[in-house]
Amino acid sequence: MEQKKQLTEKEEQEVFDAYEEGFEEVARGKISTPARPAAGGGIPEEFIRIRLPNSKNREVIGVVLEDYGQKLLVKCMDGYTRTCRIPGKIRYKVYINPGDFVLIQKWVVQSNEKGDYLYRYTRTQVNHLIKKGFLKESDLQ
Fold first, then answer.
1. What percent helix, strand, coil does the chain show, rounded to 5?
2. Is residue 26, in this structure, part of any structural domain at all?
3. Whole-angstrom Cα distance, residue 11 to residue 28?
4. How many of the other CB atoms lie within 10 Å of CB of 135?
């Protein structure tokens, strides 16, 4: 059996950087996919990019209660239940089910009653939001 060579911290960082930079060139078709660093090789934990609510843009997270086809009934984290419209450009590209966490934008007029759908969170993203403190376990009911 071959023993795996332990990389120094500097070598690990070089491999990791080459791996990240390689994706741009792979997308352009210049090179093949770079080799992944060895598992457990001291690579920092995975970074997850999640769209968070921006209060300046009147955005809030909510849970879908009912689906009305082109509209949703959403229980928002600020305590209001809003009827949210799904914009036409994304209406047929996304599937939203009751129980999904969504990001909505409140309307300027009737802000406590209506809003627009912006984004649906995946289960992994919801778990990450709970872990980071943006959502509470009590919000899941």
1. 25, 25, 50
2. yes
3. 26
4. 19
Domain assignment present for 39: yes
Residue 49 lies in a domain: no
Residue 36: alpha-carbon gap to chain centroid: 24
Give pLDDT, residue 41.
53
Q: What is the pTM of this model?
A: 0.63
DSSP 75-128: EETTS-EEEEEPPTTTTTT----TT-EEEEEE-STTTTTEEEEEEE--HHHHHH
Q: What is the three-class DSSP state of 4? A: coil
The tens-digit pLDDT sequence of the chain (141 residues) is: 555 566 677 777 776 666 655 555 545 555 455 555 555 555 555 667 788 888 888 999 999 999 888 899 999 988 899 999 999 888 888 888 999 999 999 999 988 899 999 999 999 888 888 888 888 777 656
Q: Domain of 5?
A: 1-44
Instruction: Tell me how far apart the alpha carbons of residues 59 and 107 are, in angstroms, rounded to a whole number.
Output: 10
Q: What CA–CA distance (Å, rounded) separates 31 from 118?
A: 36
